[in-house]
Write a structure and sequence with these properties.
Blueprint lengths: L1 H19 L2 H6 L1 H21 L11 H44 L3 H65 L16
Helix pairs in contact: 1-5, 3-4, 4-5
C-alpha cells in the first residue's frame, strides 16, 4: 500500500511539474535542487553511521529484541533506497545542466515536458522516501524506548527483590524473638 501511495504521489508531482513548470525555470533551480538532494543524502549518511543502538542486549526480551533489530535492518534498506533515488536525481539534474539550456531549447515541447516531469518525479520520490523513513525511524525509537523502559523496570524489580531478601536474611540472623505470650485461659462461669 505504501509503495502504491508513493508511486501515485510521485506521478502526481511529475504531472504537476510537467504541466506548470517551464523547462527554463528548471535551469534556474538546478543548483538549489542538487544542494537539497545532497543534504538529504548527507543526513542519511549521518543516520547510517549511527547503526545499532548500544543497549545491554542480554537484558532485553528476546522477541522484542528481534523485532527491534529487524526494524533497524529494514530501515537501513530504506536509507539505501533514499541514497540511490537521490543519486539518480542528482545525476539526472547534472546531465541536464551539462546538456545546457541552449540544447534543450531545440527539443520539442513534449520532450521538454517529459524532462520536467522526470525532474519532478525524481525530486518527489526523494522527498517522499525521506519523509517515510523519518516516520519509520520514529517507530524504531518508540520501540527502543519501550525496550529500555521494560529492561529498566525489570532491573529495578530485581534490585528491589535482592534488597528485600537481604533485609529478611538480616532479620533472621539477628535472632530477635517475639515477646513471651501466655497461653489463653478459659473463661470462668
Amino acid at each position: 500500500m505504501n509503495r502504491i501511495l508513493t508511486l501515485l504521489l510521485c506521478l502526481s508531482g511529475a504531472w504537476a511539474f510537467a504541466q506548470y513548470v517551464p523547462i527554463e525555470h528548471i535551469f534556474s533551480g538546478l543548483q538549489p535542487l542538487i544542494v537539497t538532494l545532497s543534504i538529504i543524502v548527507a543526513a542519511v549518511f549521518v543516520r547510517l553511521n549511527r547503526g545499532m543502538p548500544t543497549l545491554e542486549w542480554k537484558s532485553l526480551e528476546p522477541n522484542k529484541r528481534a523485532k527491534l533489530t529487524t526494524k533497524i535492518v529494514e530501515i537501513t534498506y530504506e536509507y539505501a533506497a533514499i541514497v540511490a533515488s537521490s543519486a539518480v536525481a542528482c545525476l539526472f539534474l547534472l546531465a541536464l545542466a551539462i546538456a545546457g539550456q541552449d540544447e534543450i531549447k531545440i527539443w520539442s515541447r513534449s520532450s521538454s515536458k517529459l524532462i520536467v516531469g522526470l525532474v519532478g518525479f525524481t525530486i518527489c520520490i526523494s522527498i517522499i522516501r525521506m519523509i517515510y523513513v523519518v516516520w519509520r525511524d520514529i517507530d524504531v525509537v518508540k520501540l527502543q524506548k519501550e525496550l529500555i523502559d521494560t529492561a529498566a523496570s525489570d532491573q529495578q524489580y530485581k534490585e528491589n527483590n535482592e534488597i528485600a531478601d537481604k533485609k529478611i536474611e538480616r532479620m533472621k540472623e539477628s535472632a530477635v524473638q517475639g515477646p513471651k505470650v501466655n497461653p489463653p485461659t478459659p473463661w470462668e462461669k
